[in-house]
User: What shape does this take?
Amino acid sequence: MKLWAGRFSKEIDKKTNDFNSSISFDSRMYREDIEGSMAHAEMIGACGIIEKSESEAIISGLKEILADLDSGALTIDPNAEDIHTFIEGELTQRLGQTGKRLHTARSRNDQVAVDIRLYLKKEVQTVRAMVKELIAVLCNKAEAYASAVMPGYTHLQRAQPITFGHHLMAYAEMLLRDIDRLDSTYKHMDEMPLGSGALATTTYPIDRTVTASLLGFERISQNSLDGVSDRDFCMELASALSIIMVHLSRFSEEIIMWCSWEFKYVELDDAFSTGSSIMPQKKNPDIAELVRGKSGRVFGDLMTLLTVMKGIALAYNKDMQEDKEAIFDAVDTVKMCLTAFTPMIDTMRVLPDNMRKAAAKGFINATDCADYLVKKGLPFRDAYKATGTLVALCIEKGTTLEELPLEEYKAVCDTFDEGVYEAISLENCVNGRNVIGGPASSNVIAQVERVRKLIAE
Assistant: This one.
């Protein structure tokens, strides 16, 4: 039976009913719907709006329904209009007239608003824990390779020497910001709308603070129109999830490049790679590629939510039913990606010798060569020009700055002496950059310790 039966003289058209129905996707909120209903029943019983005995019977009946759903003894009817209709219908079937009293002093509008907040609060905490797990893996890898020299890039061109540990901790910093965004989103959704009614609260003497306390909300919404029509928290969560996917996608792009024979900085474990149907030699980084591809899916979910909400007049409109599939898909996709991505990083084999060779061939110590001259009193622009001339000479001769004889240095600039070789040593170039935030090995270890402390708090 439809909860809105009475006004209408005809049954709804079957195709229209299917179009209108949300049970196929909001059924995942059955636990939250029951939790919200139990809290509501307890509150209206405590406030004397229904008899205490009726309140207790309703709560007992709802607990039994929850247990039956969890065990599989009860299955959700796919023909029900939504999860709220199904739960209330089942309760009424079991309790008769008493079950019909549950919906006193509330509307499906504030009911669904509280359900989705309860559901997403749990999901935010789950995603947050998964992001922390990935950060912990990055910290372990970074600590292990704090001294592994590799080229740092700008414009995808070798630029200056860094370490692999330093590179990994850049992603740890990104993910820390993701946690901050998730925490901010959680704070904004930790507001209970139940009691807003359809849009204008109720004439019953309810106590919303009781319900909020029972459901674990920090506060109650302060405007009933906003209480039922606010989906900012969905858009905000989708935005936070999209940025997580940006970071995972960027990381995936680098993993994909690093696995190629052109780089060969890392090798993925066989458990996180696939082969080719016709090329026996192939080992493809499919997990990273899928993560990179699924980022577009999450971005699309965000765009869906923004588009749905942008033209809706206050208060509730049926358009808002579209919020669930989009935000559920965004959450599911990010969780799925993190589930595969984190162990992929944890088990990948790092090839530091290949990184070191690439760093040696890229003239990425040229800035240090110029700085060496500056420290000897030469103006930077003159030092820059002299070093550029040396790089061109090395390219012409097929050698590197480390291998170039001192007489070649002096022929370009007589300020050079034997000390230049120490100055341009890749390890010295890296470890000399011990400014806070720099790639020096000691900095990487300090950053790892800092991040570990942050995620432990």
DSSP finds 20 helices and six strands in the chain. The chain has three domains: 14-104, 109-145+162-351, 358-456.
